[in-house]
Specification:
Blueprint lengths: L1 E4 L4 H12 L5 E4 L20 E3 L5 E3 L1 H9 L12 H29 L10 H22 L12 H16 L5 H4 L1 H11 L2 H6 L4
Parallel strand pairs: 1-2
Antiparallel strand pairs: 1-3, 3-4
Helix pairs in contact: 1-2, 1-5, 3-4, 3-5, 5-7
Length: about 200
Amino acid sequence: MKLIGSLTSPYVCKVRIVLAEKKLDYTFVTEDVWSADTRISESNPLGKVPCLIMEGHEAVFDSRVIVEYLDTLSPVGKLIPSGGRERAAVKTWEALADGVMDAAILARMESIWPGRADSQRSQAWIDRQMGKIDTSLRAMSAGLGDKPFCSGVHMSLSDIAVGCALGYLDLRYSQIDWRAAHPNLHKLYDKLSQRQSFIDCMPKA
């Protein structure tokens, strides 16, 4: 398998951590989707990473679809429950974490995208996205409570997704002191950060 992605994308980070936890072999190919000569649309017509190219050259895209597929490839380290409320709970945690990443990226692009002049940028739009991050972090903290992991007593996709979201905030929004505001998320993130998969795959500038 081949994974097309970037080192700064939190969605790519999520997929790479799942690949590592599942002990699956793959080739990582970096791609700058903002470059004028990017060829990502040849694999993903949406022009986004991550994109997984399977052995038969079929493309799978959207990080949620990719990680769900990867979890079926090996019984090692099952990350998504097979069904029922437990599965729905894990996928809801993933949706919440992905929403934080969505909002963070939207706010960042509104602030820095070179295709827009400063006078065209909307502070109201940025504030709206930052508000989503704040309410989502509070929801994460409340949902985690004093549990060792987001969805029970073992690490799951819930924790991987949350860890990637928090790591991206550290990368792009160091002014957000989520550790002081949510010490239980701080404790979870410190625990996740000690895993080799997180050490190797967390987004880097």
